[in-house]
Amino acid sequence: MQSNRTRGAIGIIAVGLLLLTAGLTMAEDLTGREIMAMVRQTPDTEDMSSDVTMTLVNARGQQRVRELRMLAKESDGISRSVMFFTAPADVRGTGFLTVEQANGESDMWLYLPALRRIRRIVSSSRNESFMGSDLTYADLGSRDLDNYEYLRLADDRIDGQVAYVVESTPATDEIERETGYSRTVVWISMDKLIPLRTDFYDTRGNLAKQMVVEETLLVGGHWVMSRIVVADLKDGGSTIMETTNIEIDTGIDDDVFTQQQLRRGL
Fold first, then answer.
1. What is the CATH classification number for the domain harbouring 236?
2. Which of 92, 162, 105, 166 has the alpha carbon at shortest distance from 131?
3. Contact of 98 with 81, CB cutoff 8 Å
4. Looking at the domain assignment, is residue 83 inside a domain?
5. Could you check whether the bond before residue 88 is cis, i.e. omega within 30 degrees of 0?
6. Could you tell me which residues come within 8 angstroms of residue 27 by beta carbon, excluding any fewer than 6 positions away?
7. CB 6: neighbour CB atoms within 10 A?
8. Is the CB of residue 195 less than 8 Å from the CB of residue 173?
9. 193 in helix, strand or coil?
């Protein structure tokens, strides 16, 4: 299952264990776009499910903890993911559904049980905060490779891991408005081919947010980002995403990824 998308900044999608065997010369010759294409070409999974703990931390250090169930599936070039919030009571029953087509077009819906209605997240709203976190709706989606221009920067090392460094710039003003970012810089592990850190620059060119993958797990031969910290460098808050109970290729039914199921919940 391959598509012309790169995985979302914090989309918790399993990534295959793929070691570079072509030698140092080939690695040095790779362009920024080729590296991003390699990330999406790692061995795929059919589906994945997991439990996620989302901790919201404000600038004063006060915390709010939310629990959710996440499921994802890719088939026939279509990527689907859904989140169901299970705790605490004020967000229980809230659901978020994303469906992304092979051509890069995507639809997002948020179900709010208190209002008993589904809100479609239009493009102009995707730079808004997701459920009060430091993530936006755009952060949760995948990126079409053709929507960006790429520049490979000098290789770097993070926590002992050698990393490619690639700068991505929106190809159009529309993409910049939709995401709220004028550019991003991502550090990608050379051996695992997963992002280790991403810096997000706002539309004025200022460093606004940073995502760091603090822990990874090898599940069924696939690398999974198991602890992600997203720091808002403007207001001092952060969001921590911790993933547990990860299961891969269990045969999740397509009916799970529908608006009807979004209303019904788990």
1. 2.50.20.10
2. 92
3. yes
4. no
5. yes
6. 20, 190
7. 23
8. no
9. coil
Residue type, 140: L
Asked if 187 and 196 touch (Cβ cutoff 8 Å), the reply is yes
Residues 6+ apart with CB under 8 A from 180: 127, 136, 138, 202, 203
Number of structural domains (the chain) is: 1
Query: Residues 71-120: pLDDT tens digits?
Result: 999 888 889 999 999 999 999 999 999 999 877 788 999 999 999 999 99
**pTM (2 d.p.):** 0.87
d(CA 246, CA 261): 21
Two tokens, residue 153:
């920067």
Pairwise CA distance, residues 219 & 237, whole Å: 31
Handedness of CA 132, 205, 11, 171 (dihedral sign): positive
Residue 218 lies in a domain: yes
Question: Residues 113, 257, 71, 90: what is their CA dihedral angle, to the nearest 10 degrees?
Answer: 0
Residue 157 included in any domain: yes
User: For the segment 228-251, what is each residue's pLDDT rounded down to a tens digit?
Assistant: 999 999 999 999 999 999 999 999
What single-letter amino acid sits at 199? D
8 Å CB contact between 107 and 99: yes
Q: CA-to-CA distance for 104 and 76, rounded, in angstroms?
A: 14
Element (H, E) at 132: none
Beta strand ranges found along the chain (DSSP E): 5-6, 15-16, 47-57, 63-75, 78-87, 95-100, 106-112, 117-120, 143-144, 148-158, 161-170, 183-189, 195-201, 207-219, 222-232, 238-248
Which is it for strands 15-16 and 148-158: parallel, antiparallel or unpaired? unpaired
